[in-house]
Automatic annotation (TrEMBL):
This is DUF7689 domain-containing protein. Residues 33-123 form the DUF7689 domain. InterPro entries: DUF7689. It holds the Pfam family DUF7689. Residues 190-203, 220-229 have a biased composition (Basic residues). Residues 183-238 are annotated as: Disordered. It comes from the Eukaryota.
Length: 277
């Protein structure tokens, strides 16, 4: 960062963290990495298609488990890609991942802002001239990817439907013919059998919608061609899930995201209207 003109973003970091120094070579702001699609908690577990916004630290632990990251002792030796979480007033506000265990350099996604590289102690320091102010709180917990634990976690918590979709065990049920489906897709037939709902027929688009003032479209937005995230603990998908069968799968768009040698995606509730860094 030396010899560069400081941006307002950089000045804010230096103001809020006494260990931040514009002359430090290991404080780097990566240009053109701003994104509203993911935040710090998503970035540290290599998720770039959605924000991870847990309502509590306990839910964050569950979220991280869905990506293969599990809590470890903070006294263990650092390894590359370890994740550390900042806690303030018992709330998780930020997370970084270890970039270089020897130097202590880390990487963070700053809310919807850019990704930065920084010394481990930088964001864990108090505000300049404000010794009792810690913007994100203090580093309090560490997580590490563990493939063996991840396999065991998936066996315990996830099952496959007959059509090959991964869902929570608690959401699975069998039809009268023995097929495994999501419970929200089940209904009783007139004869009392448990069957899978029939997909709703899609009607012809109204002319006003298709060609009118508000109906034109240039195609799906980036990251926008997937089903909406589960937004409550009751798994009430509502009318948004109007396409059942093979098109139905929570977080279907994450099927290609790899975590080490495993494929997987999370199925966790996402708290609405919550922002985090």
């Amino acid at each position: 960062m030396a010899n560069q003109e400081l941006t307002n973003f950089q000045r804010d970091i230096i103001r809020d963290h006494s260990a931040a120094n514009e002359r430090a070579q290991n404080f780097v702001v990566y240009p053109d990495t701003e994104s509203s699609y993911f935040n710090c908690f998503a970035y540290v577990v290599n998720e770039t298609s959605r924000k991870v916004t847990p309502a509590s630290f306990a839910l964050l632990v569950d979220e991280f488990a869905g990506y293969g990251y599990f809590k470890i002792s903070p006294t263990e030796n650092f390894e590359a890609h370890d994740v550390e979480v900042y806690i303030k007033h018992n709330i998780a506000l930020h997370a970084h991942r270890i970039k270089d265990p020897l130097s202590g350099d880390c990487e963070s996604k700053m809310g919807e802002g850019p990704i930065i590289s920084h010394p481990r102690a930088m964001l864990d320091s108090p505000g300049r001239n404000r010794p009792n102010f810690y913007k994100f709180g203090r580093i309090s917990h560490r997580f590490r990817y563990n493939e063996e634990q991840f396999r065991a976690w998936k066996l315990k918590n996830i099952c496959q439907t007959t059509s090959g979709r991964d869902i929570w065990n608690r959401d699975a049920m069998a039809t009268s013919s023995g097929k495994i489906i999501h419970k929200n897709l089940a209904q009783k037939s007139r004869s009392g059998r448990i069957v899978k709902k029939t997909p709703k027929a899609k009607g012809k688009a109204k002319e006003g919608k298709a060609k009118g003032k508000h109906g034109s479209s240039s195609g799906p937005k980036k990251h926008g061609n997937h089903k909406p995230h589960i937004s409550n603990a009751t798994d009430d998908y509502g009318d948004d899930y109007d396409n059942y069968g093979d098109n139905y799968a929570p977080y279907k768009s994450f099927r290609t995201r790899k975590v080490s040698a495993l494929r997987g995606w999370t199925l966790f509730p996402v708290a609405e209207n919550q922002s985090s860094f």
